[in-house]
Amino acid sequence: MSKKWILLSVATLLVVLVLAACGGDSNVSQEDPTEATDNTADEAADNTANEEENNEAGNNEAEPAEEKESYQFRLAETHAPDYPTTLADKHFAELVGERSDGRITIDVFPSASLGEESAVLEQVQLGSIDFTRTSAGPMAEFNEDFGVFSLPYIFDDDDHVWNFLLSEHGDNLLKSLESSNMMGLAYYSSGARHFYSSEPINSLEDLEGQKIRVQQNAINIDLMNALGASATPMDFGEVFSGLQTGVIDAAENNYPSYYSTRHFEVAPYYILDGHQRVPEVLVASSSTWEILDEEDQELIKQAAIDSIDFQRENWAEFEAFAEEEVRAAGATIIEVDDVSVWQEAASTVIDEHGEQYREVLDAIESVR
């Protein structure tokens, strides 16, 4: 083959290869890059809109309300189940239960089943017992401000007492219990305290030398000394046996306590001198109080305040009933025609202890 034909064949082959590389299937379309970008943006916008709709739908669903804590507390009471303060304790507990829809339960333990007042107050301070009803008398050992109620003959009558207790000054005394790891909730009525003895007492002179049970505080002890008697501190639950066995000759308390404890059976002479009007106090442990939120604290505080009228009404009824019963049982009731003799004898107690309560005594005088 000549050189000319060889060159022609190579040239022809090159042309074929070039045409094959540049050619293609005319039915296959080429994608526009701009169109692809636009499609991707549209899909992203659609996805974002769907997500926003889903989120909005989720936000419109009501979130379940947070369930509040439930509590079960104990309230210690010295007196019997049918005593006016115990009935008031139970009424207070019922109000708390109703207003909390059963979420807060307060069980009342009457008849000193959790201990006598002084021991219970110590447990309330420690948080071992949640609530208690106590006389303001032994409170003075835990908070000296409450000693003012032990001062003799500072109130004229029950109306005078409540004029003070429901005043700002009375409320401030309750608040002062915070320094003693207790929260004061409300006052209850306890009437007037009188002396009763196993021996006849017709005058102040008849108390001379008698061993008289008193609540444990310095003012009570000084009062007995001022009246010529011998003070014998003793738990309330031991008084009956003390009178019966002669460990003590006399005691002092109000009509309902004199009757309900049947002390009139062993000390049938009751002289109406009205030397003290010491209120009852409903208190809570600070440890218990601090676990409650503000709403529950307000609920319990208001329930305590709302139980006051109930207690006062029950007290007045029971006081009249107790007087009738002890008279019918043969107790000798001695009226005091001139209490000024007793007041004069007790004036040294005011002189010795009154100055530390001067502001409170002035407030008591102002509401007379």
From TrEMBL:
**Region Disordered, residue ranges:** 25-70
Q: Which UniProt keywords apply?
A: Signal
Q: Does the keyword Signal apply?
A: yes
- GO molecular function terms here? carbohydrate binding
Composition bias of kind Acidic residues appears in 32-55
Q: Name one GO cellular component term.
A: outer membrane-bounded periplasmic space
Q: Which InterPro entries match?
A: DctP_fam (IPR018389), TRAP_DctP (IPR004682), TRAP_DctP_sf (IPR038404)
Signal found in the keyword field: yes
> One Pfam family, short name please?
DctP
Q: What is this protein called?
A: C4-dicarboxylate ABC transporter
- Record the organism: Salipaludibacillus neizhouensis
